[in-house]
Amino acid sequence: MVQADAVKPGVRWPARERGGYGANRVSWRWIAVFCLPALALYGLFVVVPLVTAFYYGLFRWEGIRQAEFVGLGNYGEVLTRYPLSEEIPTALWHNVLFFVGTMAIQNTIGLGLAVLLYRNPRGKRFFQTVFSLPYLISPLIVGYIWSLLLSPAFGPVNFILRTVGLESWARPWLGEPDTALPVLILVNAWQWVGGPMLIFLAALGGIPRELEEAAAMDGASAFRTFWSVRFPLLMPAVGVITVLTFIGCFNIFDLVYALGGSDGGPGGAMDVLGLLYYRTAFEGGTNAIGESSALAMMIFACVFGVSVVLERFLRRREVTL
């Protein structure tokens, strides 16, 4: 009788009991409760500084005292006043080179490590931990450690090169303009290679094995199987890693500061936009607040705009592949 009554026509259960509107409303309340702390932190540490920087950039400052409203005058000063007018293109170019080098070295090695761990799962957890540990360390500490390792006076890198008979290779790695930026790229890749490795490894685990088995039955080689089957299915991961790498490369400051100081190493060989902002804010004269805020907004607009365009371009590439 109970079962018969349960399915009797015309009987309407309360919305919350049958999983209807009431249940959805309760679930959205819980989602809001759990999201509010993150939104509050995001607003406090991201939105508020961004709005504040935009506001400060509209005024001329005399030290820490706000002076007259100048609108976009600070932006014009940043783009036309020497030496900023010459330092901005150089720093921007270094950021571009840093991004290209990081994509070519860090993410390629990360993909290779992910493929190796995917094919040989023995010791997988151990190597995942080993390659992920460096990016748990502060970039400032990493930079200071590598500056000691690469020291031309007592660094172990040059000592090993001299010991094995490669004395001609020993040099002040961070003291020559030709080697400073490549060393920065390699140190950054050493620290962050675990990130793309984990993302690629997770993406490889989501590829159906039936596709690879079908390609093997058709006689495709291992390289052909990877390039024609696996890589197109890895494009979503490639897109995420590319955008994150771009944002990280154009926001870099601490590692460069630790390796080359506020001037960006010898002859400004490692000078980037983050260092340029630092010098403008703390060494920029009386109107440092206004000009540094304007420069910060320009960097934000560049990073945000290019990230959006890059993300849309990679999405379209995913569809074509």
Structural features, described:
With 321 residues, the chain is mostly helical. It contains 15 helices and 2 strands. It has a two-stranded antiparallel ribbon. A hairpin with a 2-residue loop joins strand 1 and strand 2 (65-69). The chain is globular, with a radius of gyration of 27 Å. The protein starts with a helix and ends with a helix.
Which labels suit this protein?
321 residues; two-stranded antiparallel sheet; mainly alpha
Quick summary:
It is globular, with a radius of gyration of 27 Å.
Based on CA inertia axes, which overall geometry fits?
A: globular
Oligomer: single chain
Main sheet: which strands, in order across? 1-2
Based on DSSP secondary structure assignment, what is the total number of beta strands?
A: 2
> Residue-averaged pLDDT, rounded?
87
Largest sheet: 2 strands, antiparallel
Helix content: over 70%
Poorly predicted sequence stretches spanning 5 or more consecutive residues = 1-7, 13-19
Q: What's the gyration radius in Å? A: 27 Å
Number of H- or I-type helical stretches = 15
Topology of helices and strands:
Elements: H1 2-6, H2 21-56, E1 59-62, E2 65-69, H3 73-80, H4 84-119, H5 124-132, H6 139-149, H7 156-163, H8 177-192, H9 194-205, H10 209-217, H11 222-233, H12 235-250, H13 254-260, H14 273-283, H15 288-320
Antiparallel strand pairs: 1-2
Helix pairs in contact: 2-15, 3-15, 4-8, 4-9, 4-12, 5-9, 6-13, 9-12, 10-11, 12-15, 14-15
